[in-house]
Amino acid sequence: MPEFRLSLILAAYNLEDLIETALGSIMPQLHDDMELVIIDDGSTDSTREVIRRYLGDRLEEKRIRLIEQANGGISAARNTGVEAARGAYIAFLDGDDLLLPGYSDTLTRILDESTTPPDIVEFNAIRFDRIEGEQFINSYPFNTTVIAPHQGEASADTFKRIFSHGWWFLWARIYRRELLAGLSFPPGRRYEDMSLLPEIYLRAVTITAIDTPLIAYRCNSEGITRNPSSKDLEDIECIIDHYLAMAKEATDDLTRTLALYVAFQATLFYKNINNDMYGYRRALPNIRRMVNKVGALRRRHPIELPFNTRALFLSPELSNFYSFLKSTRFMERFRT
């Protein structure tokens, strides 16, 4: 029997200026049936000292643990957290993000009122740049669930809606712990959410989704999505290859379709990163190569795609031109 109802895994690396704010959003709503598992992933600043100072004697409580390990990246930190977790459900939070008020009460109510325990509970978030006093600066809604409101067994159409939009943010859900059995985040790889989360969904049967925002997601100017590199392209191509292989090996139409959705949406992401790195014209050869690689399987197994993804596979050139017209660089040039 799990010792707790929910385990919240908080991963931190070199966040000495932000981790106290994250903890401040967690501790007032850490229910008795919840545990907090903090993974310090080899911080070289004073992150762990800030954690120890903030929590003080509460680190002696059974439901609060600080695990320190050599730096292995966010995947390694999350794997450590999952292995250590003792809850019936698993939740994740990055050390620079926050729980919004009502996180714990809302999830507790959902679990209490569910006649059949959900495998996954989805919710929304807000984005923000920074905090001044108690105010989120430049905050706006971040709708990470595309099926809310929903409760109960997920149909094939429900799964297709989730997979075709590809909002793969690990922290925007909680998971029944059995869904993660035998799975792990890929060490040394970026975009670990996109890599593993679809596989978790493929194991799910019942899903609850609500419109309520429960997480405050910090837009980090130093994050990998703002500073892409060739490593990003390599890791995304690994994800594409993994789900293409899954689609080829699938023995049922739904699994094949869902795996293809991940590969197609990842290709759109691959395009966007190429454009950020090389510009809209120089990126085209790389984008064409990936479109040809992924598109070959789509021709054998046609599926309906969202507009932006469909446009990319119809014509990478027109897709890129459309992206350029929408870009800040073009609009600034047009205004001048």
Automatic annotation (TrEMBL):
Protein name as it appears in the record: Glycosyl transferase family 2
Keywords: Transferase
Pfam family, one: Glycos_transf_2
InterPro entries (alphabetical): Glyco_trans_2-like, Nucleotide-diphossugar_trans
GO MF term (any one): hexosyltransferase activity
UniProt KW Transferase keyword: yes
Domain called Glycosyltransferase 2-like: residue spans: 7-113
Organism, as annotated: Kushneria sinocarnis
